[in-house]
Design brief:
heterodimer, A: Elongation Factor Tu (Ef-tu), domain 3, Rossmann fold, 7-stranded mixed beta sheet, 6-stranded antiparallel beta sheet, 30% strand, B: 370 residues, alpha+beta, 4-stranded antiparallel beta sheet
């Protein structure tokens, strides 16, 4: 060992995809599928709510995808994937039994323990619901540990809404203040039409003792955070999950930088006061 | 432990290291530039050459002496040896409906880096922090780094683009080496050699040498003092982080975007730039795939590509990313500066963009404000 080497080396066990078989596949919308994965050998990893995995489609490549499963009861990984690029299209085209690769879990988690005893306000936009799903499951499973539970979900159109039956069952079974909206309705849509930000002023929660979790496009998170701040929820009590391109997932490749932070290492969950000034700068 | 070596003793260094079956990589002249390559003899060092550098310009000229290290830095850095430009990480084979991924064993032959400049010693320390100092480590880098042996050479003749004195990384190496040499051309041509580690002392003990007299020590000190004076301070490091972060939307970025070609030369030549991508390539049968880690650059559009387009589409934003990373956000991310003042990005920029000038231009408008 060179004596000039003073750094202590971190873990080397993160770079090889582990084979997981697809055990279930469900089409959620016209471009979005949910996969359930079980390890070909051994026990599955147990991600925390808010963490992501690097999913590998054989011969195509890897992408970071949030965990969307119910960690409390499941021993399988659940990932909801929108087919937008080469890798996500390959992942969405898998059949039951196909083996994909998993590296992870990476990144930090939603502050679900710290939120105990408080009201929880979750605001999701479109494909932003799956990354919040583990946190939602946790609150539902431990419903009495939390105060009011407000879930606001917006999508572009009714056909972009994910897990709608399940979302409605949460409202029915668990005392959830659910409100839904779409940017543009269709002939079957009887609900609200408009941006998800409009659901915030009427929502019932105690801003002095609440936590907000938001996931959606950056522009949506920005306006939702502002609406929550308008309701006197402090920026430090508002959490968002950021998204950037990633190659390694473990802080080595540089791709996920947003100014002073590496999303894979320091996020993907941030308080709004940590990222507000970064999101405000175009193309940072 | 320190001693004075005659120029001929450099051959003894190479011989001793090669006797141990180590690779010896050192500066040598190729294609009219000084590059780092494996050498078999100290005669392959760039004897009697100097480099003349300016923004966007580099040329070698003959000196009127036989200096072995009478130049600054060339287009390459030791990054090539530690964070190799292309490394296969994985071989993945399909196996009855599943796949098997095998990591390439991270092995590296013991290698002596002979002629590492103080700014480059600093750059290696920075890459150590980034690539092996966090929760996760790059295995290939670690293997290469563990097997490296650093013979630093202090600088006596900085090139015009050198600004290590501004960045506090040179012209004299304070630590991070196994052995450090200072080439003294004043009077008898000789080297002051100082061991930085036990292994360095062991090597030094094997070399033909003279004891170092006070006159040798003061002559060596004069070498780096003179270099420091020549360079002066051309970039004010003290408040540069706050300056850049307070001016993220500065019009100077429009100006520099009008000159920058997004060629990525600066990031490739930079000894601290560490960004990489991975490339998955398949064999013709479709049964096997390989993953290769390759250098990447924040100056490309693909670097920030996500669904819905890249986050940094404009050249303004890409230059800003590079500049603020080097001089500001690197500190936030890794608790160390990202620039060592080697000047390569200035010399090897085809249009001669000078990082110091860009900072000065931003600073000038800031200071003009009341």
């Amino acid at each position: 060992m060179a004596q000039t080497l003073t750094e202590t080396a971190g873990s080397l066990e993160a770079m090889t995809p582990v084979p997981y078989a697809v055990t279930a596949k469900r089409q959620d919308t016209y471009d979005t599928w949910t996969l359930e994965l079980e390890p070909v050998d051994g026990a599955p990893i147990v991600p925390g709510p808010g963490q992501f995995n690097m999913l590998y489609a054989f011969g195509v490549g890897e992408v970071p995808i949030s965990n969307a499963g119910n960690f409390a009861t499941d021993d399988r990984l659940v990932h909801t994937i929108r087919a937008v690029g080469a890798v996500t299209k390959a992942l969405c085209a898998v059949e039951i039994g196909t083996v994909v690769g998993v590296r992870g879990p990476f990144g930090n988690t939603w502050p679900i323990e710290e939120a105990k005893g408080k009201d929880v306000v979750i605001v999701a936009g479109g494909i932003g619901l799956p990354p919040l799903r583990p946190a939602i499951y946790h609150v539902l499973k431990n419903r009495k540990d939390y105060g009011r539970f407000v879930l606001l979900y917006g999508a572009r159109t009714p056909s972009d809404m994910l897990f709608l039956d399940e979302v409605k069952s949460w409202q029915r079974d668990y005392d959830v203040d659910l409100d839904l909206t779409v940017d543009a309705g269709d002939s079957d849509w009887k609900g609200k039409v408009g941006l998800v930000t409009k659901l915030i002023p009427p929502a019932q929660f105690d801003a002095d003792d609440a936590r907000g979790f938001i996931v959606g496009p950056e522009i949506m998170m920005k306006f939702v955070a502002q609406e929550l701040i308008n309701r006197d929820l402090p920026a430090e009590s508002i959490y968002v999950s950021m998204e950037r391109t990633m190659r390694c997932g473990v802080g080595l490749c540089g791709h996920c930088q947003i100014g002073p932070t590496l999303v894979c290492r320091d996020g993907a969950v941030y308080t709004w006061d940590e990222v507000e000034s970064l999101v405000a700068v175009k193309e940072l | 432990m320190r001693a004075v070596l005659a120029p001929e003793a450099l051959e003894a260094i190479v011989e001793e290291l090669r006797r141990r079956d180590w690779r010896v990589v050192a500066p040598t002249v190729r294609d009219k530039a000084i590059v780092y390559d494996e050498i078999a003899s100290a005669a392959e060092l760039p004897v009697g050459w100097k480099d003349v550098q300016a923004p966007g310009s580099y040329k070698l000229e003959l000196r009127d002496d036989e200096a072995r290290f009478g130049y600054a830095v060339g287009p390459q850095s030791w990054k090539r040896e530690l964070l190799a430009p292309s490394v296969r990480l994985l071989q993945i084979e399909r196996t009855h409906g599943s796949f098997k991924a095998a990591e390439d064993a991270a092995e590296a032959k013991r290698t002596a880096f002979f002629g590492v400049r103080p700014c480059e010693v600093a750059a290696i320390k920075i890459q150590d922090r980034v690539l092996i100092g966090g929760s996760f480590a790059d295995g290939d880098y670690l293997a290469r780094r563990k097997n490296s042996f650093v013979i630093a050479v202090n600088c006596g003749e900085p090139a015009a683009n050198c600004f290590c004195a501004s960045m506090n990384t040179g012209p004299k190496a304070e630590d991070g080496y196994d052995l450090v040499l200072t080439e003294i051309l004043d009077g008898a041509h000789r080297f002051l050699a100082e061991a930085g580690t036990g292994e360095g002392a062991e090597l030094l003990a094997k070399l033909p040498q003279q004891p170092a007299a006070d006159a040798d020590l003061s002559a060596a000190q004069k070498v780096t003092d003179t270099a420091r004076e020549k360079m002066g301070i051309t970039l004010d490091r003290s408040d540069v982080r706050d300056l850049l972060l307070a001016n993220l939307e500065h019009p100077r970025y429009d100006d520099v975007a009008g000159r920058c070609l997004a060629c990525t030369n600066c990031t490739l030549a930079c000894p601290t730039c560490f960004c990489t991508t991975v490339d998955d390539a398949n064999d013709l049968s479709g049964a096997g795939s390989e993953r290769t880690r390759k250098w990447d650059s924040c100056f490309t559009a693909q670097y920030s590509e996500m669904h819905g387009g890249g986050t940094r589409r404009s050249l303004q934003s890409r230059y800003r990313q590079w500049l603020i990373h080097k001089l500001a956000t690197w500190n936030d991310q890794f608790d160390t500066q990202g620039c060592v003042g080697c000047g390569r990005c200035i010399t090897w920029c085809p249009v001669g963009i000078d990082i110091r000038e860009e900072v000065s231009a931003i600073r000038a408008t800031q200071e003009a404000k009341p």
